[in-house]
Amino acid sequence: MSDERIRNVLKALAAAILLFPAAGLLAQEQGHLSVKTVVQKEQVELDEAGNEKTVLVDAGKVVPGEHVVYTITFQNIGDEPAQNVVITNPVDANLTYIEGSAFGPGMDIQFSVDGGKTFASLDALTVTEDGTQRPAEAKDITQIRWVMHEDLAAGAQGIARFAAVLK
Amino acid sequence: MKNAVKGAGLIVRLGITAAAVLFAQQVLAAGTDAGTSVQNQATVAYDVGGNTQTPIESDPAGNSTPGGGSPTAFLVDRRVDFTLVETSGGPTTPVAPGDSDVIASFTLTNNGNAIMDFRLDVADFAGAVFGNADSADLANYRIRVANGDGAGGVPDLATDVPFVDELAEDGVVEIYVFADAPGTVSNGQYANIQLTATAADDANATATPGTLDGDLAESPGADDPTVIESVFADAGNDGVEQAEDSYEIVSAALTITKTSAVISDPFSSGKAVPDAVIEYTITIDNSGGGSAAQSVVVIDNIQVADVTFEDEAYGAGQDVAIDAAFCNADAGDADTDGCSYDAGTGALSIAVPDIAAGASTTITYQVRINTT
User: CB 3.0–4.6 Å: which of A72, A88, A126, A152 could bond A160 by disulfide?
Assistant: First the structure.
């Protein structure tokens, strides 16, 4: 293709992209996965035998000091397997990740303390505070990432979960 | 995260923000501000057939279109937590009968996660406070919370408001209760009061300075995600706190005794016969009083038909003895020493210096029994 033709294609492509509404700058076609995040609270209830059991209920009145649990479910709604599936989740500034609560069968779980630039296991991360370096703690975590070991087969579903305290 | 749109060999890199935080939060000791929307959105990146796909963001109901999901959010509700204590921690506030605008002070601290009003009420308290049983009532209670224009930190009765207005998270405020002591209360009594503070806020937690918001109620049932509801975390979990204070009535308590004795008589008989001289002793005792007796005036009536006031009984110009001092009981108190005697009516008036709490004063004067 000649340079001029390339430029024309680029201009046409740019124009095509600009025709999409701002929120839909990306392709509007449906992807292969459906992703859902729900937030819940733990609640202690009594079962039929009168024993205490902990259940997850919709996060209702949440006040500082309480725990919430985020559950991310992702399903392959396409016909082909999904490969290299990576779930990335930022931790809101008003939440503190609860160490050890990240859960995801068949996935490696990693954390970031620098806004998502680098990811590693928590004990490999350090933070610089007041000029000195110290090991990263749960309160420093800015992102959590789950990396699937295997492909997600067509029709299959995966689940990732973590808990946090509302500051 | 990088993203790629493929077309004509051109790769366009687009940044994707994974979550939006709508409010810039200042997290205080009391916790995340009520009304904050806490948001979370996960992003899933994947390949199909070796080709990188456009990542898909999560949605509370599930989303499969890139750019089509919304964050999962919850609203931070009000955690109502506050304390009310009597400020001095114990000693009673002294008040004399007839005093007006005596002050008892309390401290209210907002330990919750919202800026709030507090409705204040004061009432007589029938129970014991600081070990003092309640035995009297004060009157004309007025509550004032200083807004900064009172002299010396004490509120302005005329312009300050009777409720706590828009107290910040971690904020502390002084509440003053003004009262008057009736003239009928007496030394040694205690008047106990109780101040009640009730948490209040506008339903949407909007600031309404100068106006007392409505009382808060803990919302039963399921959470309404569009309304800021309240959870009571104060003592008793009811959004109401109370504190008591005790006023001690402190006053003089005078006991007056009058005795007489024959000083001399023509027959040295010690009997009250004509021409005998009688000495009267008046004792004013404030030993049970809590404070000095002031402006004390003794008025005695000499029976001029039967006796005559003995002039200068103790020396020149010394008609009446008051402890170690003397005064001249002249007509109309012309010499302004506080003593006067009207020979026509027999009225003897003696001004007495302040008698301290626990002290007493002795006054003596003499009369002679008439011979005719």
Answer: A72
